[in-house]
Amino acid sequence: MNRAVIYARFSTDLQNERSIDDQVALCRTYAEREGLNVVATFDDRARSGGSVLGRDGLLHLMDQAREHEFDVLVVEALDRLSRDMEDLAGIHKRLSFLGIEIRAVHEGVVNTVLVGLRGLVGQLYREDVAHKVRRGQAGRIKNGLHAGGLTYGYAYVLGDPGKRMIVEEEARIVRRIFGEYVEGQTPRDIAHKLNKDGVPPPRGRTWNASTINGNVQRGTGLLQNELYAGRLIWNRVRMVKDPDTGKRVSRPNAKGEWQTVEVPDLAIVSAELFDAVRARKKARAITHPSHQRRPQHLLTGLLKCGACGAGMSSKGIDKTKRVRIRCSAATESGICADPKTFYLDTVETAVLTGLAAELRHPEVIAHYVQTYQEERRRLAADTDARRARLERRLGELSREIDRLVTAIAKGHGDPAILGPQSTTLNEERKAIVTELNQVPAAASVIALHPALLARYEEQLNQLRAGLAKGLMAGDSESAEAMRDLIETVTVFRDPSRLGGVEVEIAGRLTALLGEKAFPNGVRASGGMVVAGEGLEPPTPGL
């Protein structure tokens, strides 16, 4: 008896769990009638047929197929396997290559024509359902009902789907945020106070500026949600599924596609207050090109807080015009365990001195490049061996196919036997050609020129002097050049010195090796190196 497996699936949590049992029972009855021996069953519960991603049952089935654990796959109907034309055709193609037959209870033995028809019908059905769902949502919106999730400040009305009611405790927080913003406070100041007062956020553990500010284009954030002013807006974004990952991502729709309905009973703030917030946001959004964000300092965008791992940003200047920096988490949310303020020039001095001390030893670079070269050579040899093996097998297959075609043409064999053999070999040949196209070309190995080490010390001194001079002159290219050497700088408080600072540098030797090399660690305090792990050799398998 042929070994058979059964696959069953249902789409959403709203469907009955017994659907799986019913499908399996139907397929078992069919298998008994056809004389098939069922050796395993696979299922996916509450999984859409629009993608094979995230369907563990189907993926396990395909793994078993590659191990030749069964000969026939039985399903209730082809749409249980997939409602996507590409996926269904791919499943059929791979199982056919493995010599596995697909049988559908209601359709019999599956062939290419049936796969094409059912794949098309399944995908059209899925798209039609999506259109009908959106049509139904649009109708609910016109009646003042919600078609989506829950907004902060509101709760569901039990027994009345789509209805919302105001939660007064949360509504007071919304009014507080709007009022404080109009009074001149920034979103990060408001978030800081809310966290200090222990106010529960809409989601997560803390309030932050982005929760309040949101995104203008997508209309997110408390200050931009027009529902608080009594206007329900739907269809700002649409959800599309990434075919490579299976994940749904949002895309903003044109403003002409938005649907707006007045719901005055859900207004939490007055129209005047909402308009005042909008006017202030518009005024704050106007930025002169000369003030737009760009690296202004040596370490702009590279600093991290040693206490909590968040980024660090400028926090104004003191009376002596020295720039201060502070943890962004402390500034945005007030949640950093050690929200200390540091002087930027002290951190820059520590970084430059520590980096120079670490890179001052040419033998470190020599060892770095030597190990890098050895690993590159090993990988190149593996790649060449793999390519040679594939090319050898490709030649064998081509010669065997040519012999079969010649035999058929000359009448030396039965075409009914030789034809399928030739087709199977041709499928294997196509797979090998695809694999060959994916084999990366051997990377060129960087040579360490003797003159490089001889000039390295001189160039290092020039680099430090040039960077310092360029930064003092406001040259943003100098700051960008530093990013070729430094990836992150983590700033710690130095407990042994009053006002002392300790930094940990994670860097890359892009300037020397021409690509992202390997991270290295440098510890420096007050401009003096206090500990160093050195430049570690490249990780095997780069």
TrEMBL record:
GO terms for molecular function: DNA binding; DNA strand exchange activity. Residues 151-287 form the Recombinase domain. Residues 3-152 form the Resolvase/invertase-type recombinase catalytic domain. SUPFAM superfamilies: Resolvase-like (SSF53041). Keywords: Coiled coil. PROSITE patterns: RECOMBINASE_DNA_BIND, RECOMBINASES_3. Residues 380-407 form a coiled coil. This is Recombinase family protein. It comes from Mesorhizobium hawassense.
